[in-house]
Amino acid sequence: MGKLAYLLFIQLYPVAAKLLGIFNRKAKLWVEGRKDIFELISAKLSADKRKKIWVHCSSLGEFEQGLPLIEELKQRYSTYAIVLTFFSPSGYEHEKNNRYTDHVFYMPMDSRANAKQFFDIVQPSLVVFVKYEFWFYYLYEAKVRNIPLVLVSGIFRKSQPFFKWYGDFHRGMLQCFTYLFVQTDAALALLQSIHISNASVSGDTRFDRVLEIAEDFKAMPVIQTFCAGKKTVVAGSTWTDDDEALDHYANTHPDHRFIVAPHNIGEERLKECEALYQQSVRYSVYAHDITAGVNANTLIIDNIGMLKYLYKYATVCYVGGGFGGDGIHNVLEAAVYNKPVVFGPVYDKYFEATELINNEGAFAVANALELEEMLDELFDDTDLYEYCAAAAGNYVRSKKGATAGVMQYIYEKRLLTS
């Protein structure tokens, strides 16, 4: 059952993407990015005679998660070239020219022939998958070629096929890994329940990454001017439901400042934000002429890449995604700056959100009224604010070190030569 469903999925996904690509830009990029992909990979790698480390990330978030490890691999094993692949256009398009890796490609869709051809061209000495995405033929090819295959910052839930009665096929994917580093004790216990013993808890490399970002922070004068010492809410990765929960508070508190970074920055979505936030200005307009925002209390961010630094300017951070969809976005990017974090009720898949609440550095709200009450409480109660802000930052700092654990394993097992 599991294998049949998987085979149908890998056959139908490209067809669906091609059809969606007629009117969906992301789907179109997914399809176009894979045209003549093997010719591109071969042309790029044929001139690079170095041994290769292959790192695969689903999308941009997983790249940020894996970046501390990529940097350490690059530094310690400098004679190797790092080949990075993405499944999603949002990852590839944003990082195709990044300075951390040597080659960046779309991952060809999983199939027996594609996996064999990919390994024939790349010939990796080590394969690293970040967090999740389990592509059977690629994993199997690494195993049969006896190439070390490591999962980093893995997270597992009981609802996944690996742990179901019909999950033999998916459990076989896990058996391809040389070693699995997971984020939590609960994830490790799930693996042990299906007799996967080559695993351990290393933590989440995202903690290392957000700490790096915070340490590398550089002032943003335009944002600093907009905030101008005012009480400020930075709302990151918001969806429509998030903005509908926040807009009344923003519209009725003209003396506060609100920086809203929508998850989707398409023109239609930006216009929606402008309609919801009645006293708003786009960042691109304000940065060009700050007088354009003279009557605005809300700055709408219309670019990608700033958010992880914007949280520094918040009094309180609001992280979007918690009122629907798959759940909240990265709460660690906000908490690392010693800021209280607020988000919607859908967060159960994210252990760090639960732990942040338990450590009193974050709060979940069920609706717009609770959100407004929470913001008022944090703004007005100085003792509460300072306690929660410190709790948020201390939680993040207490979790650093996952990258070092993975690197130690690679070194001790001699998976690579210096």
TrEMBL record:
Signal peptide: none
Keyword list, A-Z: Cell membrane, Lipopolysaccharide biosynthesis, Membrane, Transferase
Pathway listed: Bacterial outer membrane biogenesis; LPS core biosynthesis
Enzyme class: transferase
Gene Ontology molecular-function annotations: Kdo transferase activity
Catalyzed chemical reaction(s): lipid IVA (E. coli) + CMP-3-deoxy-beta-D-manno-octulosonate = alpha-Kdo-(2->6)-lipid IVA (E. coli) + CMP + H(+)
Subcellular localization, as worded in the UniProt entry: Cell membrane
EC number(s) given by UniProt: 2.4.99.12
Enzyme active site: 62
Main location: membrane
SUPFAM superfamilies in the record: UDP-Glycosyltransferase/glycogen phosphorylase
Gene Ontology terms: biological process: lipid A biosynthetic process; lipopolysaccharide core region biosynthetic process
Domain 3-deoxy-D-manno-octulosonic-acid transferase N-terminal positions: 47-208
Aminoacyl-tRNA synthetase listed as a keyword: no
GO cellular component: plasma membrane
Domain of life: Bacteria
PANTHER family registered for this protein in UniProt: 3-DEOXY-D-MANNO-OCTULOSONIC ACID TRANSFERASE, MITOCHONDRIAL-RELATED (PTHR42755:SF1), 3-DEOXY-MANNO-OCTULOSONATE CYTIDYLYLTRANSFERASE (PTHR42755)
Family named by the database record: Belongs to the glycosyltransferase group 1 family.
Protein task: Involved in lipopolysaccharide (LPS) biosynthesis. Catalyzes the transfer of 3-deoxy-D-manno-octulosonate (Kdo) residue(s) from CMP-Kdo to lipid IV(A), the tetraacyldisaccharide-1,4'-bisphosphate precursor of lipid A.
Protein name as it appears in the record: 3-deoxy-D-manno-octulosonic acid transferase
Source organism: Panacibacter microcysteis
Phylogenetic lineage: Bacteria, Pseudomonadati, Bacteroidota, Chitinophagia, Chitinophagales
